[in-house]
Q: What sequence folds into this?
């Protein structure tokens, strides 16, 4: 006589690990995109000093009209998703196919990682365009020196010392923690460790970021929040209960966003890693 074994599925969903947005720490909200697709940002240059002449009608030099520059910031990333949860599937899966939980899962595992990746790639490309970049292979003997070299470059460009943030890969963070110089001068606390901050040097927080969110091969990105803005102009998420033609739920989402590095503050970003295609 055959033995019929019983099967049971747990009502508890095995959720994947996830991480909240980290890129927001590198950004500012100084520019308002509400109700518009494009914001124009003015920057005003200066004029050079020259010697004062104690005679004639142009003793201060020949005056020229002071110009201004305009940077156009147009939000271009218009992204969306859509999926259906059939009412029968939910009923026959011990109610684990919950629309609200599925939407939250989509935001934290898909939307947020894409946003962070786009921000970090934009920062890296801006730094490369400014020649604020290096690709020296990092080791446990030079990791801290590479970080300090980037700090020095930003300092020489008058970027404020306080408020800087260094986003580094776990690989680079491991090398840093094996560098005796970093362990000697880095400052950290248990509260900072809980936020993913592995240290603070001269007011700059060093934050570990999964490699999947950074450009391929990136060791670290050093930035001051005043240098970039990344508006989320629209975040629209909907759960339709029994829409026409569906017995169940239609879940839809749309996010309109972009990231911009300001021309006058582009010196405030440094990228250490290989070239980006």
A:
């Amino acid at each position: 006589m055959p033995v019929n074994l019983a099967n049971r599925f747990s009502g508890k969903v095995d959720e994947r690990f996830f991480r909240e947005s980290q890129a927001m720490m590198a950004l500012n909200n100084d520019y308002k995109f509400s109700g518009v697709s494009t914001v124009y940002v003015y920057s005003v240059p200066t004029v050079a000093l020259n010697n004062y002449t104690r005679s004639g009608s142009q003793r201060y030099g020949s005056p020229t009209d002071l110009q201004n520059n305009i940077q156009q910031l147009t939000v271009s990333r218009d992204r969306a998703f859509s999926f259906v949860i059939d009412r029968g599937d939910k009923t026959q899966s011990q109610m684990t196919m919950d629309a609200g939980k599925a939407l939250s899962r989509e935001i934290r595992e898909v939307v947020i990682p894409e946003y962070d990746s786009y921000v970090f790639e934009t920062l890296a490309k801006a730094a490369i365009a400014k020649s604020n970049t290096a690709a020296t292979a990092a080791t446990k003997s030079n990791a801290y020196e590479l970080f300090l070299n980037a700090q020095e470059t930003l300092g020489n460009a008058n970027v404020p010392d306080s408020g800087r943030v260094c986003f580094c890969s776990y690989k680079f963070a491991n090398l840093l923690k094996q560098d005796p110089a970093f362990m000697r001068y880095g400052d950290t606390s248990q509260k900072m460790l809980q936020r993913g901050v592995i240290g603070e040097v001269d007011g700059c927080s060093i934050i570990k970021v999964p490699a999947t969110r950074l450009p391929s091969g990136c060791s670290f990105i050093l930035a001051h929040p005043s240098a970039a803005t990344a508006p989320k102009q629209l975040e629209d998420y909907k759960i339709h209960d029994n829409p026409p033609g569906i017995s169940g739920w239609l879940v839809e989402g749309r996010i309109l966003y972009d990231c911009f590095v300001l021309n006058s503050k582009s010196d405030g970003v440094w990228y250490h890693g290989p070239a980006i295609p």
Remarks:
- The mean pLDDT is 88.
- The first strand starts at residue 38 and ends at 43.
- The CA atoms of residues 120 and 156 lie 23 Å apart.
